[in-house]
Amino acid sequence: ADAAAAPGGGGCSPAGGGSVPVLFCFSVFARPSSVPHGAGYELLIQKFLSLYGDQIDMHRKFVVQLFAEEWSQYIDLPKGFLVSERCKVRLVPLQIQMTTLGNLTPSSTVFFCCDMQERFRPAIKYFGDIISVGQRLLQGARLLGIPVIVTEQYPKGLGSTVQEIDLTGAKLVLPKTKFSMVLPEVEAALAEIPGVRSVVLFGVETHVCIQQTALELIGRGLEVHIVADATSSRSMMDRMFALERLARTGIIVTTSEAILLQLVADKEHPKFKEIQNLIKASAPESGLLSKV
């Protein structure tokens, strides 16, 4: 449903062209801006972050509200809302502060493997190393029974996932043209996994597909862990600034070893020895982590 059709849809006058004026309100601030026609919840959240990122405490939960002229007050953003006319929205922090502890358990975790494709091999820095670490993560996911979702960016032109990455048992392997991995099929798959709370994300490129995926996921209330030694870009500068930006928004930047050992949590875990052997078997000394 668009803004006019949604219950209590807000807006003043229809906007023509490719963008729609929107007034973004947060706390005592109100800043006019614009979004593409048809923008939804994720783009509104990204715009709030770009306008008020230094004021927003990402350790809190938020609700987006729309000003409804019918009621002369704000209402919670209607489900499926898409911007089609000039409107006013606000970001409201909930009273309960949510501390991001970063705890991981296999039963509430999903692994996202993003665009580890053959055509990227000569272009991405340390690509061989992130393939090795990515394969180790997927082996760990299989041992621990963690669902894995894999995407491939325009595989017709960029090739399939590299042969070194074993996708046996992956819940989904999807082609995409959107940079973010958050496709309708991915959202449906997440909805089918009971109690999912955390996403472990790795692949390429850090400043494009990884960044956009992470921002969409935290916009949906999921906790995101980016695996620094399994994530890279063509440019180390792009990678570094993307990781810094994402860390400031409350996303956890970590390493593959930390992830795997946090998931087993105890030396007495029945899979500990197998996870330990995985860690011992491949630990590239590439210098990638010195460029975080």
From TrEMBL:
CDD domains for the chain: YcaC_related
Per UniProt, residues of the Isochorismatase-like domain are 109-257
Q: So which domain of life are we looking at?
A: Eukaryota
Pfam families listed in its UniProt record: Isochorismatase
Read off the InterPro entries from this record: Isochorismatase-like_dom, Isochorismatase-like_sf, Isochorismatase_domain
Tell me the protein family, please.
Answer: Belongs to the isochorismatase family.
Q: What is this protein called?
A: Isochorismatase domain-containing protein 1
UniProt source species: Ardeotis kori
Q: Which gene encodes it?
A: Isoc1
